[in-house]
């Protein structure tokens, strides 16, 4: 790779030198059975012989998530299609930033060192990571990264309430309005945690799993592969509560956020342990007026 592709050291405003003219990114890949995938850096690299993540410089016109998955494939033979990106934590120094991309394995992953930069790759149980000689910056970030490990963001959207918050003639064709909302939700990616009020230390973003709860004339709204659809049999509010409860029962550590303006429904959702978000905030994320 040429230095023009983003490689090279940056003299950071923090006083240290960092790798990556456009920042850098690493992939924190976890597997429930094996732990997290760590890389022991070759002796000749910056901070050599320490353990950290597969990763490297971000190229121009490349997102940190794309950089992290590309570097993991180049250094550890981890195919991009074999990982499911859940979240990202960014440490921004102003003149330079590093993004840790958290992901889980969704297919066969058999990592092996295929780059000169990797001396060894190893699956390490989360509770044993701190026993290794870690890269200085990874060691500092590990406690906050571990707190969010394998956690997913689940958005449970009260379709009737969100659609009804916009005076755009939705009542003329509620089914079509639900499909339009579903389609826009399908394009929702990398939502900032601060925009959702999620309690997490540092600057976090999430790739959400979206569940759209529909009722009445919109009950026949089909899923599209990106958005799950739950059709309420009778009571739409009860379906929203049941969906949030079920998500937390299956994965209690996940961030479940219910999107609705209904005060009673918001209280019920919070009673189940979910966070709540108003339709206006969601529509702003979708860039809808």
TrEMBL record:
It comes from the Bacteria. PROSITE patterns: NUDIX. The keyword Methyltransferase does not apply. Residues 20-146 form the Nudix hydrolase domain. Transmembrane segments: none annotated. Its cofactor is Mg(2+). InterPro entries: NUDIX_hydrolase-like_dom_sf, NUDIX_hydrolase_dom. SUPFAM superfamilies: Nudix (SSF55811). Keywords: Hydrolase. GO terms for molecular function: hydrolase activity. PANTHER family: 8-OXO-DGTP DIPHOSPHATASE-RELATED, GDP-MANNOSE MANNOSYL HYDROLASE. This is ADP-ribose pyrophosphatase YjhB (NUDIX family). It comes from Amycolatopsis cihanbeyliensis.
């Amino acid at each position: 790779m040429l230095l023009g592709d983003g490689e090279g050291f940056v003299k950071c405003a923090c006083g240290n030198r960092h790798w990556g003219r456009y920042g850098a990114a690493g992939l924190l890949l976890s597997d429930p059975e094996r732990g997290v995938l760590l890389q022991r850096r070759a002796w000749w690299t910056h901070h050599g012989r320490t353990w950290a993540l597969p990763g490297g410089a971000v190229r121009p016109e490349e997102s940190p998530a794309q950089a992290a998955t590309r570097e993991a494939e180049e250094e550890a033979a981890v195919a991009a299609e074999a990982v499911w990106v859940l979240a990202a934590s960014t440490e921004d120094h102003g003149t330079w930033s590093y993004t840790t991309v958290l992901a889980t394995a969704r297919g066969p992953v058999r990592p092996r060192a295929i780059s000169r930069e990797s001396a060894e790759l190893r699956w390490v149980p989360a509770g044993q990571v701190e026993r290794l000689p870690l890269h200085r910056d990874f060691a500092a970030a590990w406690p906050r990264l571990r707190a969010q490990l394998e956690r997913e963001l689940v958005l449970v959207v009260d379709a009737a309430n969100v659609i009804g918050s916009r005076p755009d003639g939705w009542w003329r064709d509620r089914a079509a309005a639900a499909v339009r909302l579903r389609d826009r939700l399908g394009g929702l990616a990398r939502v900032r945690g601060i925009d959702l009020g999620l309690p997490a230390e540092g600057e976090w973003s999430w790739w959400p799993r979206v569940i759209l709860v529909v009722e009445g004339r919109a009950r026949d709204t089909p899923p599209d592969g990106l958005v799950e659809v739950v059709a309420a049999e009778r009571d739409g509010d009860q379906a929203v509560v049941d969906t949030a409860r079920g998500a937390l029962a299956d994965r209690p550590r996940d961030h479940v956020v219910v999107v609705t303006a209904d005060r009673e429904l918001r209280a019920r959702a919070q009673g189940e342990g979910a966070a709540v978000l108003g339709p206006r905030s969601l529509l702003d994320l979708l860039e809808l007026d």
